[in-house]
Amino acid sequence: MATVNPYLTFNGNCEEAFDFYKSVFGGEFATVMRMGEAEGMPVPDAAKNKVMHVALPIGDTGMLMGSDTMEGSGPPFNAGNNFSVAVGPKSKEEADQIYSGLSSGGTQTMPMADAFWGAYFGMLVDKFGIQWMVNFDSSRSQ
Fold first, then answer.
1. CA atoms 69, 71, 73, 77: torsion sign
2. 65, 52, 68: which is closest to 3 by C-alpha?
């Protein structure tokens, strides 16, 4: 069964926000990636130190994740659309099934494909306007 985690988007202050969440929930970041580390993706110098992805484990199985926005890489930042539901399927087949089901009647914003960080990843907006990220990481599958 897939896991579901909230994914928050910030307008340049993701690091500050996640340092705050870390002070509240404790623990250590599981991942911190900067936009300047993105292979094959043109990133303006001013955005290279912005957070591309951060993950903070919460509780036994929860994960709070987030990133900064980069102009031109998605819908304009607005409070209320600054989150996605991140799904972690247990197989590539389950990832395709979930992506296909959720995108029915919606908009595929990034089709499922192999990502430079080693996962199989895609993004979409469902027919109800909810943003989703599907990320199958074979190194974490069971």
1. positive
2. 65
